């Protein structure tokens, strides 16, 4: 396998074909966003509340109209059961993606998700709805866990940040579409009010699964399975290069060398490899346990900013206030702002880097959350149990919790998150071994895995043999 010691030649130039492939993979965000957002409006629909509780709106004249709502425990169960399914689905998806492939795992997740959506659409009571959301959550876990992995493995390094941001943008688009559909059906006095938003989820899953049949598998998956010919073919398709071009051979050699390095470091055996994920010291930036905590904590701190309660409970909370004429419209506007602000990250993360953007945003969030206690009392809910009128009823005080957590998120981002701007996945691995997160923005790649694993020397021998063969042919 011909490699290179030139760190600037481990990847082919970016083509429009690569952009389109990665952009379609990001479409999975719409399906995840729509599924997360539709339930917000559905739980505030008059027909849905009456069907699931037996209450009638006419029985709650002012000033008791806020009592016409799902009880807090039902809101919590309906929303959180999806996350429970996602938890188990994402755990299973990792191993499954290594066995049957990234693309196939995502397609399987879409199939499971559709089964869950069918059950939700058919539901006329809590039990079937919860069962459907649990099954759909398993499918969401498959897709959400692997789609970002798939995109990062097929995307060129120069646009990887923008492409992954595109996935987040698609999530916000899905949230907006869900708000629009909820807004359009909320006044219906039949089962279509909630069944239409639920059933529409199948459309996004069908589009994603159908499109993935046309996209290639990840070349890193083929390398992991020892199918180097398939990996080379797929890589050429992704990069828009000839299969035997130097760019393709050199990038493939780098992927192979990195895989060989990982195999030397990871112990044999299923459970031993799992335990290896948690090995090393917490004080070593390159240790596996630090990498595990880094990845999981990033997702956890995203929730700690306090934004998801708007998307899950915003409509019902606005209804409880009793001062908003159209809570569905407010929810729609909130998601619209989210959609419009997300594309800014496409440019900023490549221009300023991940660390600076993340730290700056978290710092701004911490200040705005404290200000919100005085000025933005409408947006003040994390779960029904914290602000529900039948439970803790914290009101705007909950923003002190979010503000404090955002300060912690800022400190975490500043001290523990490395800068990965402009690096391949293999170079990120090397960077984490050789520097600290605070100094990572100054780190520059100085060698390749292909050079370290001896593939460059092999390339030189191959070139020499080719010259000798050509000379022999000309002599004949």
From TrEMBL:
Q: Which GO terms describe its cellular component?
A: membrane
Q: What is its main location?
A: membrane
Q: Can you tell me where the transmembrane regions are?
A: 18-39, 77-97, 104-122, 128-150, 162-184, 196-215, 292-313, 328-349, 398-417
According to its record, how does it sit in the membrane?
Answer: Multi-pass membrane protein
Where, per UniProt, does this protein localize? Membrane
* Superkingdom of origin: Eukaryota
The protein's matches in Pfam families, at most eight in alphabetical order, are given as:
Sugar_tr
Q: What is this protein called?
A: Monosaccharide transporter
Q: Could you cite one Gene Ontology molecular function of this protein?
A: carbohydrate:proton symporter activity
Domain Major facilitator superfamily (MFS) profile, chain residue ranges per copy = 21-476
NCBIfam families named among the record's database cross-references = SP (TIGR00879)
Keywords on record? Membrane, Transmembrane, Transmembrane helix, Transport
For this chain, the family text in UniProt reads: Belongs to the major facilitator superfamily. Sugar transporter (TC 2.A.1.1) family.
The record lists the organism as Trichophyton tonsurans (strain CBS 112818)
